[in-house]
Amino acid sequence: DAKTTQPPSMDCAEGRAANLPCNHSTISGNEYVYWYRQIHSQGPQYIIHGLKNNETNEMASLIITEDRKSSTLILPHATLRDTAVYYCIAAAVEGGKLIFGQGTELSVKP
Amino acid sequence: GAVVSQHPSWVICKSGTSVKIECRSLDFQATTMFWYRQFPKQSLMLMATSNEGSKATYEQGVEKDKFLINHASLTLSTLTVTSAHPEDSSFYICSARSEGTYEQYFGPGTRLTVT
After folding, report:
1. Does the CB of B109 have a partner CB in chain A at under 8 Å?
2. Which of A12, A49, B4, B62 could potentially form a cystine with A18 if both were Cys, beta carbons 3.0 to 4.6 Å apart?
3. Distance CA A61, CA A48 (A)
4. Cβ contacts (< 8 Å) between A42 and chain B: which residues?
């Protein structure tokens, strides 16, 4: 599985968009980009995933660069409840193993 | 959305005893389940992958005789920590996914404390 690199921490003002970057320069053609988040002392929560097209759902948008070497997760209007550790993972659908890196600790401040 | 439960949510046991943790998919059939552990202020570490009716596949460095995994049905997997020691104290999290889908759904975790 491709290794991903994320900034260790970010701050965001409540109500503003939170843009979380992820580098996955060694991603393989059959690997998807997954985003999960973990609120303190809870199990991770699925956010979104994509292969090469940009994706949007009720939680977030995922922008993947054309060369697929990086991506950005966008929370359009961050709230205090979005404070969590966000994990970007590159993984093949076959096998389904998710290897978690250190993630980005997002703090949403009032 | 898909729901995964774990039981118990926390457990305290004495050193040398065994502890069983259950992971259930409540509203879908989980062909594959995964077990992770997480130490304080660290990321999740994958321990093993289990497919229903098959033996679990353990990650390198995880003792299969110490962490017994059973995936006997499409809705239940169990992790038994045998002869637990204080260093086994951790947050254990399971996840599940059904065949042909992309998402994994995680349980709320079980906090194990070995005294």
Report:
1. yes
2. A12
3. 8
4. 108-109
